[in-house]
Design brief:
By secondary structure, the chain is an alpha+beta fold. It is built from 2 helices and 2 strands, in the order ααββ. It has a two-stranded antiparallel ribbon. β1 and β2 form a beta hairpin.
Amino acid sequence: MTMQRRVFMINVATSTCAMGMASMVRAAGLPLVAENEPTAVNLHYKADATQVKHAKYRPGQACSNCMLYQGKPTDPTAACGIFPGKHVAGPGWCTAYVRRA
């Protein structure tokens, strides 16, 4: 069976849009990291960086301006490479912090 190029391109575009929308919906439903989770405890994660009392912390550091933060700096929460399947708070902080370039 041969498919016309136009029909093929429409199917490709539709499929691509559907996959993109599905991933956005999945990302929007991610739970927030709890400060008492084992990984969060090991990395001294706090949802509010102003509450951090750690030698590595410097004022102005926050998840929203970290290289691992997978959202825009203005997003209140976003996925993080350190906590797969979870969101972190934009104003949060942990010891894995790396300033975004």
